[in-house]
Write a structure and sequence with these properties.
The chain is an alpha+beta fold. The protein has three domains: 109 residues, LysM domain (Membrane-bound Lytic Murein Transglycosylase D, Chain A, Roll); 173 residues; 168 residues, Glucose Permease (Domain IIA), CATH 2.70.70.10. The chain is built from ten helices and 21 strands.
Amino acid sequence: MNDGIKILPRGIVALLLAAILISSCNISHAAPKPPPKPVSDSAIVSLASTPLPIRIPYKPGELVEYTAQSGDTLPALAARFNTTTEEILAANPFIPRDATTMPPGMPMQIPIYFLALWANPFKVIPDHAFVNGPTLSGFSTAAFVAAQPGWLREYRVYASGKWRSGAEMVDFVALNYSINPQLLLALLEYQGGALTQDAPPVKKNLLGMTRIYWENPYLQLVLAANTLNNGYYGWRAGNLLEFDDTDGILIRPDPWQNAGSVALQFYFSRIFAGEKYARATGPEGLIQTYADFFGNPWNNPIVLIPGSLQQPQLQLPFPEQQTWSYTGGPHTGWGTGKPLAAVDFAPPASKSGCFIAEERNYSTAMADGLVVRSTVEGVALDLDKDGDERTGWVIFYLHLATRARAPLGAELKAGERIGYPSCEGGRSTGTHVHIARKYNGEWIIADSAIPFQMDGWVTRNGIKEYFGTLVKGGLTVTASEYSDLYASISRNYP
């Protein structure tokens, strides 16, 4: 496999960039140049069959052909192709300025500004096979694992207050992080023979994640899932454009890549380098293991995120005529790091820390919906009421107290009580409710082309996680864990 383009030190990268900029000083207005044809997405091929292509240098502003993929937005595309949203709009005047997600399959022309060392264009896995979404309809992790001879079938682990089987462990992580359990199973097999070997490898850190006391398969799977989500949503947002492997070698994902493939590139870059990394992210790596057990995911035409996706109308998550505090700007929906999908609200109180909210200070359903999950790990309100958390719009609530929490199967109207804010579930330094959105299993980033809007308040990022604002007309509410005056937000008050 020809991946020499990825193994140059950063100093050489700078020299190459300078040389390219000096030699290419005029913007080209020639016809769009198609990208080199990568290894087919529709077939798993042998790694040794043909060298995988690399990108040629492009002139500044040269138009290249691009076909929109699931979840693409103009800001993210601009970041990946090293251009601007304005230039993309100018090259594609048919795209409305208020467009949210691009329709998958739509042909586009994108002005490109070449960067040296764009990595291999081989796409590992489609987004629908990464996310715990509609692709999983009819799949039973328990039945599948029971039919395999590997050690995962008999594995047991104590996790989150109860003993779980190997299949239950996978489903638990898949549900919380919203990652496809088939992908997690393939990863456990690729790294540790979980589906085919009699006994787990003797070595600790089965999935390569290094963290003290996080060495058993369950905790390794948690760390791997968190890492995968950081890669997926970093690419989705357009702010994870390069990273290093374990040898400190720069990896800059190809701008034509999709989020699921970059997620796996990012994960494997945390644990491998050189040939091990190239193999894991190539046709004979993780994707071959996945295809051996679950078939070629590229043959499934399912669309995860459609074009022009719009958020349904949502209310603030507390009763009318009350004033709560905006205590957490955009931060992760689950885990640490990405996606910045969630925000926090705290009820009025005369003290800080963990306390029992007053009877009247409950959290509410933000829209009509059906409760399809109600545990200490979270409550899921299914807005299309089809009973499946993996399809359509879902509002996720965390830190709702067990007391008076809406039960599984409850059908709620917008504004009805769903539970009381607390410190239960996850990590919390004070009583509050954490809310996030998902669509077809994908976390929807709060400050994005589809902003988190509640009663007309629009969510904006801050300088880092948990910071940020809510904006409505000329009004601004600033997130603060101290519940001060600037963090106060009222429902249905002027």
